[in-house]
């Protein structure tokens, strides 16, 4: 049910780990939101989050170690699930049973069958469920989408989205070293969503993966080719092992050839648009939240934008852009990419 526009939303978070700090601060700084509760199996982590809100001048949220108990006590309007994928089915299930609007971090689940079970349960319960897919909410990516919408380079023909860097992702997220489906499921999933955001749904995919780093369970490099339903061809590159200078982390570098011109997003968010009229160059650097860290500015701004989008969706009763049903399509691309890699063949999305 749509909430009355302008009403305040009572929010509770579950998962107080590495990435959740960005969510916590974004909820604290969003207008019309009251952060009522934080929950983690590790009470110390939840207490530390509550301390941080107090240090920021906010009202201390209630601390919990059990989601169902937190929902029974606080009855929030919105729950933010910021745990890793293995727990999403159980936690979103608890939210569905409580009938509460839920936003859940990516990856939605470990596999497509689980994604589909969660979507079915959420729809049967009638809750709004959005996946926290934040790349399309990065300020620079929204600027690229505006250029395409304005027809600056005509119809996109061929494109490249590249996130290849040497940033040590295992330092902040040590669990990544143990997952067997690594770079496609953890990172390239964002680029697949970005490709869908920029060029629409995908008809078929070809993918190859590589394992470079020693001592990790999954693939850490991937090159994919997407053929979109509208004919655009998009190359998607993801890697955790690339030694490159300057290192673009956390940026996605972009090139798009269109019928009327070429668009490029290079290092430091340098946008260049080449058309018959000449070349326009400008910065599309993100606006760092004042609570942010300069290295993570774009990530933190995108978290803020993603959460603001869900608040708006819940308040208006409209479906979120990256709703569970929408994200199932992004997830299907990951599943298709693994199938393509295993068979060394194109995979038609209609078969996934
Ligand atoms: P993490 O392991 O650091 O934190 C997860 C926390 O959830 C832990 O504190 C754990 O105790 C808690 N938890 C797990 N199960 C629970 C349960 N049933 N009840 C209560 N608490 C529970 O993980 P992280 O690095 O913060 O990642 C969380 C999610 O965020 C992952 O899915 C990851 O892929 C995603 N992530 C997204 C981005 C992005 O840019 N969108 C970046 C990094 C991580
Ligand atoms: O977990 C990943 C994500 O979602 O974006 C980048 C990342 O932190 C490391 O791959």
Beta-strand content estimate: 25-35%
Overall shape: it is globular
Q: Which small molecules are bound?
A: nicotinamide-adenine-dinucleotide, (3R,4R)-3,4-dihydroxy-4-(hydroxymethyl)oxolan-2-one
Determine the fraction of residues in helical runs and give it as a percent range. Answer: 25-40%
Radius of gyration: 20 Å
Descriptive key words:
9-stranded mixed β-sheet, 25% strand, 15 strands, 6-stranded parallel β-sheet, alpha/beta, 36% helix, globular, binds nicotinamide-adenine-dinucleotide, binds (3R,4R)-3,4-dihydroxy-4-(hydroxymethyl)oxolan-2-one, 352 residues
Overview of the structural elements:
Strand 4, helix 4 and strand 5 (101-105) form a beta-alpha-beta unit. The strands form 2 sheets. Strands 14-13-12-11-7-10-9-8-15 form a 9-stranded mixed beta sheet. A 6-stranded parallel beta sheet has the order 3-2-1-4-5-6, with helices on both faces. The mean pLDDT is 96. It starts with 8 loop residues before the first strand and ends with a strand. The chain has helices at 20-29, 43-55, 67-74, 88-98, 112-125, 139-149, 169-172, 183-199, 297-316, 324-343; strands at residues 9-14, 33-39, 62-64, 78-81, 101-105, 129-132, 156-164, 202-210, 221-228, 233-239, 253-258, 261-266, 270-275, 278-283, 347-348. It is built from 10 helices and 15 strands. The chain is an alpha/beta fold. The protein is globular and about 60 Å long. Nicotinamide-adenine-dinucleotide binds next to loops.
